[in-house]
What we know:
By secondary structure, the protein is mainly alpha-helical. It has helices at 2-38, 44-65, 78-94, 100-121, 128-145, 154-174, 180-190, 192-201, 210-235, 240-246, 249-261, 268-297.
Amino acid sequence: MTSFIHGSTRSLIKTVSITLLALTAFAANSVLCRYALEHGAIDAGSFTGLRLASGALVLLLLITLHRQADSERSKGSWLAGFMLFSYACTFSFAYTLLGTAMGALILFGVVQISMIAMSSVSGNQLHLSEWAGLLVAFAGFVYLIFPGLTAPPLFGVILMMLSGVAWAIYSLKGQKSSQALMDTAYNFLRTLPFVALLMLLNFETAHYTSEGILLAVASGGITSALGYVIWYRALRDLTSTQAAVVQLLVPVITAIGGILFLSEHLSTRLVIASTLILGGILCVIVGRYYFMTLRLRA
């Protein structure tokens, strides 16, 4: 029994570590996108196209190097590919209207609500610790955005909400993935027909600089491509509720990134909200783990 508990603890630490790495990549995407668009280095359509195309290229190189003899390799799905494109496209255009932290807050607030709602419809029952953590984390989220922040443009909010729903569906599809690298690579490759259509529609209004291209490629090839592979791997060990709640950490990381790299100020509101969000996440993840461990020991 002791060895089982120790093994479970190691598994928990591994899951937490790779989840944090993925969430940091998500936050970096918000910072890179907002920085590129705010400074006029590139337009939203071109940023989306270069982001997805560079991600597909990096992942194609990785799966070519990571050859597998198994003919039944997992290859993602068209639904996941379309949701990935929908998320990335609405994400970029929303950030032409929203600030970095505000956009991340709306995005992952909607992601949490969507994933938990879809999970509940599927019959997933929440444990008491998950309900408690969910309420605490969401209270922190609400405290952070209301009433201290200026109301954002409605169209930007709608776009980011659509992005959140698309990302929630993409994440739920990822829970069924047994081969994170292969599924993510093929999902990115399936976005390319939609990218081609977007670039065609965006041709007359496209503008970009070398800095904008570099930011888009970094977002696509590093923080998106590699970050999403890690996220699909983490999803195998997270329930739908856990996956939803932990993503509320992204706005906190994004805000910290703004403080470190964009000279934004640390507010008391952010400190209190971050404490609530982190405490709620801890309750959701660790609470169920120890509850199940104690049940097994009994």
